[in-house]
Amino acid sequence: MSSRVVAENALPVTNTTPYYDLMELSSTTRRGTASSESLTLGQLLKHVGDVQKEASGDGSETPVHHTLDISDDGIVTEPRAVPFVLSFSNLTYSVKIPWKLSFSAIFPNRRHHVGAAAVAEEPTVGERMFARTKTLLNDISGEARDGEIMAVLGASGSGKSTLIDALANRIAKGRLKGTVALNGEALESRLLKVISAYVMQDDLLFPMLTVEETLTFAAEFRLPRSLSKSKKKARVQALIDQLGLRNAAKTVIGDEGHRGVSGGERRRVSIGIDIIHDPILLFLDEPTSGLDSTSAFMVVKVLQRIAQSGSIVIMSVHQPSYRILGLLDRMIFLSRGQTVYSGSPSQLPSFFAEFGHPIPDTDNKTEFALDLIRDLEGSPGGTKSLVEFNKSWQSMIKLQNQTLANGVSEQNGMSLKEAISASISRGKLVSGATNTNANPSSMVPTFANPFFIEIGTLSKRSFTNSRRTPELFGIRLGAVMVTGFILATMFWQLDNSPKGVQERLGFFAFAMSTTFYTTADALPVFLQERYIFMRETAYNAYRRSSYLVSHAITALPALVFLSLAFAAITFWAVGLDGGASGFAFYFLIILASFWAGNSFVTFLSGVVPHVMLGYTIVVAILAYFLLFSGFFINRDRIPGYWIWFHYLSLVKYPYEAVLQNEFDDPVKCFVKGVQIFDNTPLGSVPNAMKLKLLESMSNTLGTKITSSTCLTTGSDILQQNGVTDLSKWNCLYITVAWGFFFRFLFYLSLLVGSKNKRR
Ligand SMILES: Nc1ncnc2c1ncn2[C@@H]1O[C@H](COP(=O)(O)OP(=O)(O)O)[C@@H](O)[C@H]1O
Ligand SMILES: [Mg+2]
Question: Is Nucleotide-binding among the key words of this record (predicted)?
Fold first, then answer.
């Protein structure tokens, strides 16, 4: 039997600022949660709110308390009161490889391997007519506890990442066989998202934010609103100290083009943004790869501290150094998806000694083991003997433990609810919000913040990023101004003659399609952010819809500037009609086409996998839009089987709108008297002759046509160009609506394209 006491500063690790104490409960609340035996999960999570309210209630720091387990004889056994056990058994995961890639499919005599997954000496265990199955994980079992680091080791390609993905629920339902359970209860996906974090192998960070800002934004996303600003700040500062990032706090992350923090520091920032909400389960894929041994050691040291604060840390390591080995509590060695060793680092020598390959004293234990496994993989029998030996060794260890524990083996068999409850009272699980819905499953808080807060935070981050890279906007503005300048000088002060009308049409067609082309720069924006977005939304940092809205909000100011610049440069220089109101509409329609084009390109960036492919598609589609806009061929002359594309053409609407803006003055004249002969073979005859011709035409037609008679007004030109079906304001509205439509499609692409799971 064990009793629970509260001790001062009893953690063996000397944190400068133990951060989770920020969430410390008063003793009354702790008693409250301890006595409630049969709480539902929803009720438990309500306690999170109570904790948070208390935590944010008074500004004074509560003294540092830790709950400890003390056994009857007074010996401190473990520095943790909340035993979480993540157990996984018989995990098997296989993928189908297309027949083309399969060499073994050529040999039909291997067909007897089908179904022999457990004993196959190689991962290729089955084959069908057109697909071969490759087993990436083969019957893997194990256990990880809070306070400990479990490391997955193995050569490259042995299945480490796959195993971590399997444990982190990142493999699509139904594909993974076997069970993963926390304290004996199967993990619901929603709950897992709240209590866990996954640190990817690559550092996906915004290069222009400082370390402190990066962590602050993470805190704003993942910590609940009920937590005061000062508490969030304190959490960030504590985390900076805990991660050893104090010296780099004000440095930007940096990238290829900008000097920034070092690789080790970047790694720790990556870890920091995922542990900001103090997850119970922390998964990391090769957190030390690519780091020098000191940085790698510091990273694992940080992980050890996180584990000892009551988390389960599961990570994969490629090749741990001797010092890192000392920080690991459990290890699983994989070879081609099979377990070849599982146990503590200290048991490793005896394991291999009994297997008949004792580890020489001078060798690094893990290096020896990995080398041996590689040798076995290359040998004819494969690692089968080692896998079998491990199995018997495991059952032997189990037997020993059972006789040792003598019936009280399930001593710390806390249920998941109890464990989470106890964890909450210790200040864990701070990402939980206070959702007091009646339905228990919907009470699991999905997002820490409401919609509008998320939009605000996302927009703030986006603006900070653009402010740090003013050259990007400068280049866009420069491009638009150069185009405007060239157009302004090319089409300088067009007159109202028939030639001038032709040139105006050309100017409008070109200007309206140029606005679309200049929006292609929106393409890399999301492509760059996509993986950051996926990482953040995979664990519910914010809603996808918030991202959508903030993406549009942050794009708009730049578009307003660009359209204003373009409209101002060209409107008077070309000599367009309509005065102030004409300019206002001209500006609005350019803004609308920028908006529609930007949305269209943004949507493309959500579906294309690569920038270059994106540009190719944008350029091609915009060219078709221009072709079908009605400038080259009028609407009434477009073949019936292509007319649908005319209505899809984004360029049609702004083009028709500016034409109407220009030519809708019913009294303005564009072809007057002898101008009727311009652009005809008679254009070159002398003026007196033209007047004579006019006179004889008048006589024939029976109407008087003098040199001042207007023959073509603006509305005639609109008629001739087939611009009759929509008013200019409707064209504007439709252009704006296209923008919203493509934003909606972009949203769908976000929903579909960011599942972040293996199939
Ligand atoms: N979708 C897939 N299709 C086929 N093979 C895959 C797929 N995903 C991973 N693999 C293979 O599975 C093995 C294990 O991959 P992984 O877990 O990434 O290894 P590790 O992280 O240990 O380097 C590798 O041989 C890899 O090529
Ligand atoms: Mg890997």
Answer: yes
What confidence category does residue 426 fall into, taking pLDDT thresholds of 50, 70 and 90?
low
Q: Which two tokens stand for residue 692?
A: 């004579």
| Residue appearing with tokens 């304001």 | 729
CA-closest candidate to residue 23, choices 232, 294, 197: 232
For residue 432, what are the CA distances in angstroms to 458, 482, 541, 724? 20, 52, 12, 58
What is the number of alpha carbons within 13 Å of residue 103 lying toward its C-beta? Answer: 0
Positive/negative CA dihedral, 662, 663, 664, 670: positive
Residue nearest to atom 27 of ligand 1 (CA): 157
- What are the residues whose beta carbon lies below 5 Å from ligand 2 (ion)? 161
Decide: 578 in ligand 1 pocket, CB within 6 A. no
| Helix H or strand E segment including 672 | strand 669-672
Ligand 1 pocket: which of 162, 317, 377 to mutate (most atoms within 8 A of CB): 162
**Is residue 567 a contact partner of residue 594, using CB atoms and an 8 Å limit?**
no
CA max distance for the chain: 126
CB 305 within 8 A of CB 238: no
Question: Residue range 27-33: average pLDDT?
Answer: 37
**261 vs 426, more confident:** 261
Q: What is the per-residue pLDDT for 459?
A: 96
Record the tokens describing residue 163, joined without a space. Answer: 């195993």
Q: Which atom of ligand 1 is nearest to the CA of 160?
A: 22
pTM of the full predicted structure? 0.78
> What is the per-residue pLDDT for 720?
87
Q: Which ligand is nearest to the CA of 152?
A: 1
Q: Which two tokens stand for residue 166?
A: 């399997």
Question: Which has the closest alpha carbon to 493: 577, 570, 575, 568?
Answer: 575
Is 299 in contact with 330 (CB distance < 8 Å)? no
646 in Cβ contact with 630 (< 8 Å): yes
Structural contact between residues 95 and 147, judged by C-beta atoms closer than 8 angstroms: no
- CB–CB of 173/188 below 8 Å? no
Could you give the CA distance from residue 213 to residue 249 in angstroms, rounded to a whole number? Answer: 8
Q: Which residue has the tokens 């690789």?
A: 263
* pLDDT interval class at 298 (50, 70, 90): confident
Buried b / exposed e along 684-699 (16+ C-beta atoms within 10 A) = eeeeeebeebbeeeee
- Atom number in ligand 1 closest to CA 158: 22
Element (H, E) at 283: strand 281-284
Asked whether residue 613 carries a pLDDT value surpassing 70, the answer given is: yes
Residue-wise burial string across 651-671, b where 16 or more C-beta atoms lie within 10 A, e elsewhere: bbbbbbbbbbbbbbeeeebbb
CA of 159 to the centre of ligand 2 (A): 7
Instruction: Report the alpha-carbon distance of residue 445 to residue 432 in Å, rounded.
Output: 6
What is the distance between the alpha carbons of residues 147 and 313, in angstroms, rounded to a whole number?
8
- Give the tokens for residue 738: 């296209």
Please compute Rg for the chain using Cα positions: 35
**pLDDT > 70? residue 755:** no
Q: Considering only CA atoms, which residue is closest to atom 7 of ligand 1?
A: 95
Q: Which of 242, 219, 241 lies closest to 231, judged by CA?
A: 219
Helix (H) or strand (E) holding 404: helix 384-405
Indicate whether residue 154 lines ligand 1 (CB < 6 A): yes
- Bigger pLDDT: 100 vs 387: 387
**Ligand 1, residues 99, 125, 133, 136: which to mutate, most atoms within 8 A of Cβ?**
136
Tokens representing 239 are 């985390």
CB distance 274 to 190 below 8 Å: no
Whether the CB-CB separation of 695 and 552 falls below 8 Å is answered with no
Torsional sign, CA 94, 98, 104, 107 = positive
